[in-house]
Write a structure and sequence with these properties.
By secondary structure, the chain is α/β, with parallel strands linked by helices. The chain has helices at 13-24, 37-48, 63-73, 99-127, 148-168, 199-212, and strands at 4-8, 28-33, 53-57, 81-84, 131-135, 174-180, 221-224. The chain has a single domain, classed as 3-Layer(aba) Sandwich (Rossmann fold), CATH 3.40.50.
Length: 227
């Protein structure tokens, strides 16, 4: 039986690479993200290759939209793997941030992954199978000018993952987080860092830990510094 892989933020970058590599492995791919030409093109690409790809449209910053997508997802068999990849970064110094700036970053980067996991986890536990991979960032461990909200949200993601791992320790499920450094994606624009890895390299790691790695990696925060 082929795996069912749910990917958030699949339109571009790491999420797109995860979807493509999962499909190449024969997985059914569930694409959770905002409607766009890029998302539709990805679905068409995977379908032409003979793979199953379904779109669940929502803006992760809008809870009502996320709830509507989750309602659809919960009518399906639970995913074998959830890859929480979607994220946003808007750069501003602390003195220039307002509450809306902070809240939007945390809603997309941390609250949405929590709510998606919370909704789908009971069915995964009942089946006794499944993994959750969080794509955090090396920024979770660093201080960066004008990235207070982003870095804090990514650090929160790692903390949430570790708590979830403790709750899964007596089950057959597992979770872990990837902490990539500078990835060659649009999100790197505006930062002072040069790309040190490709989206495909991060995607390979996500699928390895999500589908192949020993369960002993439960709770691991895996740093990727690149070359």
């Amino acid at each position: 039986m082929s795996a069912r892989v749910l990917v958030t933020g699949p339109s571009r970058g790491i999420g797109r690479a995860v979807a493509q590599l999962a499909a190449q492995r024969g997985a059914e791919v569930l694409l959770l993200g905002r409607s766009s030409n890029a998302l539709a093109e990805l679905q068409a690409e995977l379908t032409r290759a003979g793979r199953t790809a379904r779109i669940f449209s929502c803006d992760l910053g809008q809870r009502a939209q996320v709830d509507a997508a989750l309602e659809q997802l919960m009518h399906l068999d639970p995913p074998d793997l959830i890859v929480h990849n979607a994220g946003i970064v808007t750069r501003a110094r602390v003195v220039d941030q307002d509450d809306a700036f902070w809240d939007e970053t945390f809603e997309v980067n941390l609250t949405a992954p929590m709510r998606i996991t919370r909704a789908l986890l009971p069915a995964m536990l009942e089946r006794g199978q499944g993994r959750v991979v969080f794509v955090s960032s090396i920024s979770a461990t660093l201080g960066s000018v004008a990235q207070g909200a982003y870095n804090a949200s990514k650090a929160g993601m790692v903390a949430f993952m570790r708590c979830l791992a403790e709750e899964l320790s007596d089950t057959s499920l597992m979770t872990c987080a990837l902490l990539p450094g500078a990835v060659d994606t649009d999100m790197l624009k505006g930062s002072p860092f040069a790309a040190r890895m490709t989206p495909q390299e991060v995607a390979q790691a996500a699928l390895y830990y999500g589908l192949d790695a020993p369960r002993a990696f439960n709770g691991a925060a895996l740093e990727m510094f690149g070359i």
